[in-house]
Amino acid sequence: MSVSLLEQLIEALRVLPGVGQKSAQRMAYHLLERERSGGKRLGQALAEAMEGIGHCGQCRDFTEGEICATCASGSRDRQLLCAVESPADRLAIEQATGYRGVYFVLQGRLSPLDGIGPHELGLDQLGQRLAQGEVSELIIATNPTVEGEATAHYLAQLARQHGVRPSRLAHGVPLGGELEYVDRGTLSHAFGSRLDM
Amino acid sequence: MSVSLLEQLIEALRVLPGVGQKSAQRMAYHLLERERSGGKRLGQALAEAMEGIGHCGQCRDFTEGEICATCASGSRDRQLLCAVESPADRLAIEQATGYRGVYFVLQGRLSPLDGIGPHELGLDQLGQRLAQGEVSELIIATNPTVEGEATAHYLAQLARQHGVRPSRLAHGVPLGGELEYVDRGTLSHAFGSRLDM
Ligand SMILES: [Zn+2]
Ligand SMILES: [Zn+2]
């Protein structure tokens, strides 16, 4: 017997993080019973996003254009550059703080065993940017994990090579935690109290 | 500024049950970073399922055809009819037990305050089916909640009116619980020990 549309949907939902067989069934039934139009909108949004979203040519954040809205904005301070591991971290800082500079999204962290080195994180591109002389401070907002710390030290070195002052977020972000899940108040405080490094 | 594809995707994901802003962000980033093709497949599966899945003309379960695979099967015992509240309950029984009869999916439970009466549950259609004389036992597998019990009593009465023996699942299903979440062993035992009512 062929696989039904319902079985296909349940299987496809399991691509979502944290969604197993039972959750996928519950989601499929919920949509079919009560949210058909919302389910259609989601299908459309997925198709467009998976096809249309690429990376910003300047900051590597997700965007559907050549350059993201933040990089294209005329009202951001280009002397301040904040390096984050992921788009989610960038969003957390943007939502929690009054930061008006720009970002650089590593899309990962140094992890030699996984084959993730400076090149994979776009650090050659970042070095060129720092060499241009516009950036005066590199705010390093990697996660306080072992790999995040190693990445932070590499970034600080890179900044100093180009005469750019490296800084990092103040203590306040819990050790071993993920920026994305820190409450806004703590994150905002840590961002404001960032230290030279 | 217009809403970006990413923002549209995050908003659309919130249609899923139990998914708030933070989870939706995490899902969107996960798909963009690691599961583009899975995300496309999900979009396609949603589009097809929301458009193509309707209700079986015989049992009211979800199906993309006129009649679902179970009702169309030549190897099911049509003397046994099992009434369940939802497709998820039907699936739980099908997966947990060796039941070889057919089903009737109420797609709800009696709830006069919400305007859900016998007609909304297809009980006129069920009455006609019972009147045809093929069904000898109506296995009532509503949930052990107040409304589920009220529905069970109504169904038992309907069965007796047509000379059909009503039965219900044995004790073993926890009171106040939902069939869908009962472990297979308990559900299988309760199904096998069903009692006349
Ligand atoms: Zn950008
Ligand atoms: Zn059917």
UniProtKB/TrEMBL annotation, chains A, B:
InterPro entries: DNA_Rcmb_RecR, Rcmb_RecR, TOPRIM_dom, TOPRIM_RecR. GO terms for molecular function: DNA binding; zinc ion binding. Residues 79-174 form the Toprim domain. It comes from the Bacteria. Keywords: DNA damage, DNA recombination, DNA repair, Metal-binding, Zinc, Zinc-finger. Pfam families: RecR_C, RecR_HhH, Toprim_4. A zinc finger (C4-type) spans 56-71. One of its GO terms (biological process) is DNA repair. Belongs to the RecR family. May play a role in DNA repair. It seems to be involved in an RecBC-independent recombinational process of DNA repair. It may act with RecF and RecO. PANTHER family: RECOMBINATION PROTEIN RECR (PTHR30446:SF0). This is Recombination protein RecR. It comes from Pseudoxanthomonas dokdonensis.
